[in-house]
Amino acid sequence: MHSILRKNVTEGRMAKKQGVTITWLGHSAFHILTAKGSSILIDPWLNNPKAPVNSDSITQVDLILITHGHSDHMGNAEEVAAKTGAKLVAIYEIAKYFSLKGIENVQSLNKGGSMVFRDVRVTMVDARHSSGIDLNNTVLPGGEAAGERACSISCR
Length: 156
Ligand SMILES: [Zn+2]
Fold this sequence. Notes:
By secondary structure, this protein is mainly beta. It contains three helices and twelve strands; from the N terminus they run βββββααβαββββββ.
């Protein structure tokens, strides 16, 4: 199994379990490569100072999960989604924001909602945080912050 990342990241930032590789990309950004090869990015702010790669290094992504509207979480999501065609999943308000920005492959969920993508089930769960979208010196309403639990398709 190979990583989508051109640049190798250090072993200390990767974890492998049951064929799933999880790579920390700094801050709250993670890459998950499932045992069946689905490539998932969570909160891809890749300009963070701890990021071992930048957004140019992302070559192939299937799914982008966004937890809330803050710039240090949405970060490079628009750029990566546009470049790769990955399905972007977020709470309704943030999904609508990306749709209005021209991202075509967007799916909204709400808390308690679930979707299946290939070998992965994504369930939106509660989180305690705010979720305004930083844009041009103003803050747009971004719905509520949410966690997105990704697990194998057979989980509930
Ligand atoms: Zn935040």
